[in-house]
Each structure stands twice: as structure tokens, then as C-alpha cells.
Design a protein that fits this description.
There is one protein chain. With about 400 residues, the chain is of the alpha+beta class. The protein has 2 domains: about 60-100 and about 240-405, Beta-lactamase; about 110-225, no CATH class. About 35% of the residues lie in helices and about 15% in strands. The protein has 13 helices and 16 strands. Strands 3-2-1-16-15-14-13-12 form an 8-stranded antiparallel sheet, sandwiched between helices. Helix 1 packs antiparallel against helix 2 (about 20-30), helix 1 packs parallel to helix 3 and helix 4 packs parallel to helix 7 (about 210-225). The chain starts with a helix and ends with a helix.
Amino acid sequence: MKKQLISIMIIAVFLGLSVQGIVINEALAKTTSTTEEHHHIISDFLFDIYIRVLMRLAHKPSIVTCIIHDDEVIWSHAYGYYDIENQKEATTQTLYLQASVSKTVTATALMQLYEQGLFSLDDDVNDYLPFVLRNPNYPDIPITIEMILSHRSSLADDNLYWTCLSYLAGDPDVQGFPYPWLEEYLTPDGSAYSSSTWSMDKPGEKYYYANVGFSIVAYLVELLSHQDFNEYCKEHIFQPLQMNTTGFRLRDVDINNCAVPYELKNDEYFRHPQYGIHVLYPAITLRTSIEEYSHFIIAHMNGGVWNGIRILNQSTVELMHTAHFSPTDKYNYGLGWEVTNKPFKKTYGHSGGYVGFLNLVTIKPNDNTAVIFFSNALDSELHSTKTEWRAISAINDALFFKAKRITS
């Protein structure tokens, strides 16, 4: 029976079937003929095999996963090695670079200051910056803080994204960041300016994903709080939520506990050094464990509260998770959060991918359930064929299937 069920699940993987599909459901249902205890043992065994097969298909040296329901973690597990060469096994305490998932924390920091009445979302960002930020194609149209948080500012391109500034081994500092570096990069008279930085669309009209916008968000946090962005996050987010090993800079974390960034090349894993992206770090380089980040997600799922500690008001949380525009019928963006508004299937969360990392956070508010997935490889060879994302999507579906089984 076990071999037959395993075969069914592996075949389902190669056929590209979701774990919620008929084949998998029927396979799992057959285990009900055993005792309840054996049912769970076999189901867990099959689930573990299924995840490991998908992990191999996605070419991940390690993955760490977590299921949250209501205000607690109901299941978590780590698979594989976060450091292949030294045979270090991943755990739920291993730190993973979050890529764009970092934006959920950066946005939360600014929205805490919003709650203090220090700004309004429709304020012109120039009311707070020491330089004039305008799309030079529309110099008379104000860019609001809400536009920046929801990627509608008309900032269009991170030219530095693929340059040496975007990926430097260690924990680099860039002289003059955030100011006057942002002025030099974003304004027409700046020494680092490029016209492609801005779109030809009016501010507020269209969605353009711009990482540098969240460097502006972090700078606003510093200007409004009179505190370094990193120190602000430590004091007002990480410490209250007991995220004591989490940080945006390598200097703030234990590098020996950080997952190694890998890239698949010619069927072998190429080991990248631990790196920093200083001018984009508020948008990309949060490093956290799935155990600690679950505290943050629980807070967002439960009206801003984790373990009796409030980091946001419920009304603010709801505002952040509300779609502020609709670039497509399926995908929207709130304030630092990706949002889908499919009928009866609303979700919010964030995805993130950068050199050596791919992560996914999905929250289903109707079920008050969340799934978190961290991995330490970005498969450049498979990415274009969507094989990697298909496998990850199947893992995500499997985790929600498991959540349903646990909570039913």
C-alpha cells in the first residue's frame, strides 16, 4: 500500500497535478482504512516524500516551511542543507535572506509612524524629503507616500539592480546613503541619474515595481522617527516580537547561521558569498528565520497583535492589506503587501527572489491560515521554463492541504 501511494504521488508530481487534485486526495483518503494513528503516520510519511520530490524538482538545497492557524504555528519543518559543503542541516532557526518579502517589514515600520499622526498617506512626499522628488515627465503632479508604498509613484526601473551596487560580498556601505545618494540617483541633475528611472505614465496611474521606492520608505522612517532605520526596526518591531536574531544588515546577524545563497549552473550548485545590497537593503536584505518571521505574520493576521504585544492597530493592518489599485484581474498591491482578490479566495502576502533565494508568504484570511516557504537557491536555468515556480506552487498547495487536515 505504501509503495502504491508513493508511486501515485510521484506520478502526480510529474504530471504537474496540485496536491489538492483528485489523484492526491484519493491517495490520502485510502489511508483511512487504518487506525487513526496509522492514518496520520502514513499521511505524514507520504507528505514528507511528496515535499522532498518537489524540492528536488525545484533544485533547492534546503527549504523551510511553516503553517500558521489563528494565532499559533501548528506545523513547521526544515529539509535539506543550508550549507552543502559543510553539511549543515537547515532548521526553523536558520536565517534566510528574504528578498522582496523584506518590504512587509519596511512598510510596517513606516505605518507605525502613520499611526502617530506624523504624516498622511496622501501627503506629497516632498513635504518630508530634503530634495524635490518628481517624475520629470510630470513635474507638477505630486507623488504621495501612498503611491510609493503601493508601487504607483511612476518610478519605473532600478538601473542599479543588476550593477555592482546591487550585489557586493560582505556588508557594504555606500557613502552618502540614503542622502544625498537618493537625490543623486532620482533627480535629473543627479550624478547617478538615468532617464529610464521614471516611466512615461503619470504618478498614481500604473503599477511599476521599483525596489528603490522602499529605500525612500526607509529614509522616511529615519526622517520622521529621528532614528536609524535599522535601529528603529530593532526597537519597534524585532524586539517586541522576539525576533532577536533578525536583521537587515549582515553585521546584525550571525553569519554562521545564514543560509548560503546557491545558484544552479550546469546541474551543479554554485556557491555565492554572503552579500549585501546597501542602497536597496530595506527592500531586499532582511534576514530572518521562519520561526521568528512567523511572529510577524501572526501579528498581521491578528489585527496587529502577537503574544499580547501590539505593533499596529487593526485598522492600519486592514489598510495595508487592501488593494490600492488593480493592474490585472488577478494581482493587486496594498501597502507593502501583494493582494489577490479572487472571489472567495482572497489572499495577501509577498513573494521574494534574489541571488540564491526564493521565498513565498501566503495568507488566506477567510481561513485565518498562512503558509511560509523559505529556500536558498534561485534556479536561473529552470526559472525561464517556470518549472521552479510550479514546484513551489505545488509545495504551497500541499501545505494548505496539510493545514486543512490538521485543523479539521
